[in-house]
Amino acid sequence: MYPIIEESEKSDLRAAVEMSEHLRQNLFPEYRIGLLHGRMTSAEKEETMLAFSSGALQILVSTTVIEVGVDVANATLMVIEHSERFGLAQLHQLRGRVGRGPVQSTCMLIGNVGNNPEVKRRMEIMCETNDGFRIAEADLELRGPGEMIGTRQSGIPAFKYANLIRDRRALEIAREEAVRFLNILRSHPDEECRRAAFVIRDRWKDHLGPAMQG
To answer: Where are the alpha helices (DSSP H) in 10-167?
Structure first.
């Protein structure tokens, strides 16, 4: 598994195309090796996966195009190069491509942790657990959820006081209360509830925009 298709002068990452040739010619000449990446046509991808699934290919070199939707029971070993380049959720998805049959399977992570504590923690979590819920929680703690309404896909939302990780239980209670308030508003739309709804809508309309419509 490689993070890029072809090598570039701007990157020192190993690439799927070059490494598939290296493996074929220098390391495993006795095995049939396939290549799978996003620039291939749908027909080419399907042909390659059928060959791998049937055993006509013994080794498959791929980019993250293999991340989901691949179910090959006899795939028992995955090696992910430059694993420090992948997030926890993606690593978990990739690892799930092996171990889908009755045979013991292994996923090897090869990467450069360096002095980056977040990368080191990601690798430790992957070694500690296969639990998708635990990995999702750790991913949320490390990366943050990004903006619920906005463009950022990671980082902690800019709440004025609350911290989404630290105050998770308090935010869950706040959500429950908000749902309860909305239910009351729908079933008993008295004047006090209407005023509260108008205040909320007026105060947050610039920040939330279309989400406050209706």
So the answer is: 16-22, 42-54, 88-95, 117-128, 132-143
